[in-house]
Amino acid sequence: MIRYIVRRLLLSIPVLLGIVLLVFVLARVIPGDPCTATYGEKATPEICAAFEARYGLDKPIMEQFVIYLGALVQGDLGSSIRFGRPVAALLVERLPVTLELTVLALLFASVVGISLGLLSAVRRNSPVDVGTMVVANVGVSMPVFVLGLFLAFVFAVLLRGTPFALPPSGRLTPGVDVQSLVEVWGLPDLQGPPRLVLDFISNMYLPTTLVTGQWSAFLDALTHLILPAVAVGTIPLAIIARMTRSSLLEVLGLDYIRTGRAKGLRERAVVLRHAMRNALLPVVTVIGLSLGAFLSGAVLTETIFNLTGVGRTLFDAIEGRDYIVVQGVTVVVAVGYLVVNLLVDVSYAKLDPRIRLD
Predict the structure, then answer these.
(1) 3-state SS record for the chain
(2) pLDDT tens, 9-65?
(3) What is the pLDDT of residues 113-163, one digit of tens each?
């Protein structure tokens, strides 16, 4: 197992380099330039020449790439042209928002999707099966921005003043504050990487308020994330439900399932203990790949629900031709993809004892 993990990590290095190079080149060949995006009509040739010299954009593109790669190896993601701040500081501030949204959406899509797929497979061709698959097809077909606006209209306008009303935007209700871990634990003088780690965790309001016992703030932050999580998680939910149904139906037709039933095992034990474990192999793959749907859908979702996360930051950076932010966010997302794919592969050996990664 250890040899497999080390081998995968080594093979991930050229993949990561290829992604960085591709994004680096594409960011510079698209129409527009940072100087014009920053200064607009005031972007004279003299101002743009000084601007490009300040940020090193006047050098050949491969020389820029080598300089950026050298800084990246040292852990420096550069400084944003648009925001005037280090990209690492932006990620510490805004990545936790997207992570919270992604985790909630992943839990929603996985739990509900697997449950619907299991119910649909057990009651094949019944009205429950047909209704579940109709809902799944509708979920796949509905764009994120349409569903997000619809949910905001229903729960914030139509159900306003009822116990079912939910906030349509923002992370917290005005007046509600979350104390950071640095404040709660009395560490105002803490600096360096430990401070960055604590600030990163503190910007994830749900675990911070849960650990520190800020229950009112926890409930407020949770209610603000329900609608965005449902909006971004509906399409992966529908895919997971359909995949669970088809995979479980295939497994239920195998010989060892019929043998278990012939031995007198209860149907619940046959389905949950024996069939479901093997049926989850392709489902786990789909869940891992759904991370891309969460991150890509977060761009629209964060805009609709006024959440300042990585998705919205990336959109602003692309619009402003802020190459440094685009590259930094891409590196972090690519590393996340590689880690998730590795975890999915390792989970195969846990779900199916016949698989040996070594």
Answers:
(1) CHHHHHHHHHHHHHHHHHHHHHHHHHHHHCCCCHHHHHHHHHCCHHHHHHHHHHHCCCCCHHHHHHHHHHHHHCCCCCECCCCCCEHHHHHHHHHHHHHHHHHHHHHHHHHHHHHHHHHHHHCCCCHHHHHHHHHHHHHHHCCHHHHHHHHHHHHHHHCCCCCCCCCCCCCCCCCCCCCCHHHHCCCCCCCCHHHHHHHHHHCCHHHHHHHHCCHHHHHHHHHHHHHHHHHHHHHHHHHHHHHHHHHHHHHHCCHHHHHHHHCCCCHHHHHHHHHHHHHHHHHHHHHHHHHHHHHHHHHHHHHHCCCCCHHHHHHHHHHCCCHHHHHHHHHHHHHHHHHHHHHHHHHHHHHCCCCCCC
(2) 888 888 888 888 888 888 887 777 788 888 887 888 888 888 888 888 888 888 888
(3) 999 988 888 888 888 888 888 888 887 788 888 888 899 999 999 998 898
